# Entry
Amino acid sequence: MGAGFAGVGCVRRLERQLAPGEAEIALVAPFSYQLYLPLLPQVASGVLTPQSVAVSLRRSQKHRTRIIPGGAIGVDTKAKVCVIRKITGEIVNERYDQIVLSPGSITRTFDIPGLVDNARGMKTLAEAAYIRDHVIAQLDLADASHDEAERASRLQFVVVGGGYAGTETAACLQRLTTNAVKHYPHIDPKLVKWHLIDIAPKLMPELGDKLGNSALKILRERGIEVSLGVSIAEAGADKVTFTDGRVLPCRTLIWTAGVAASPLIGTLGAETVRGRLAVTPEMNVPGLDGVYALGDAAAVPDLAKGDGAVCPPTAQHSMRQGRRLADNIVASLRHQPLQPYVHKDLGLVVDLGGRDAVSKPLGIELRGLSAQAVARGYHWSALRTNVAKTRVMTNWLINAVAGDDFVRTGFQSQKPATLRDFEYTDAYLTPEQVREHTASMTARG
# Structure
């Protein structure tokens, strides 16, 4: 269940480890690609094309895996049935012997007035493509307007979330608008302002004080106003109110303040840890036969840290958990012992666009071009197919030589494309509805 780093990593390993005829494999995925999420900010800023970070499942998977185009909306663990809504809208039951839950995460929101109606997310490929169009459109609309108040609101941009996603999004898009505004002679470049805010007291605390401060310095030197210990009190259509009382004219609010486990987890009625499904170090769900969970939706114990810590929801952990879980599934089929997931974090990379980056591979602190080489080298090597690697490298080379382009497609211009439009959090069934559905389908024969 799920075609993110965890699910696809598990499927690929199963295909290699299982003998023909030993098992049937099905992958449930709403889209026919695996999204390389860490590079979305570069899609939003136009450095990479959308298809560069969307790795085709049908191109990369072997023919032995059956791909079911849709999404799971419930799991009946007693009847061993997964309820799936296919992309056609049809709801079907898929029986299983063993099920791997890797539905990933959704954008974490709070009960802030106007947030889901006016904020944009950065969790999906469609959102990244829309944000690029929207940001460039603000320059066009400001250039066409004679109303100073409207121009001011269109040229101020707010990103909420001082983690990797928010920091890279603000950095990459600020670089885009800085280069683009040179081609708008009627817009004063000083009016284009980017704001990055986070309720935490430090920017990307996982980097450590030195690198975190280096990233903060880079952003501020580029003109990005970074406010820490601050969040959003209200999000309006043309203004944003901060928790410190400031009211900012703004028509672009990008929300990247963390993630929450997929609502699918709530359909199981199983124990959770801060919203993520509680699992053993071997990644099976206690008390549920044949049910495994990993990735963003599971609280996998971090044995390398101990003290009850769980693995953070990162691509690095998800990929490695997928491989370990595949080995455990194979072991269970062959009546061999399961192995716990143990992995020490290899480090952190943050690409701030242009020649700016900070990285911490294996605990070594890097800045500038060396950090960018490590960051891009890591992302490039993590792409699963040669086609994807070729596209990404070609895009990087073209951008380095030709610079940014400022073309907007306009294909989403008639849709608000807010958080409410892209994440279908109301599509899931309750545990009671799941049981009723499976019972009724069984009664029909």
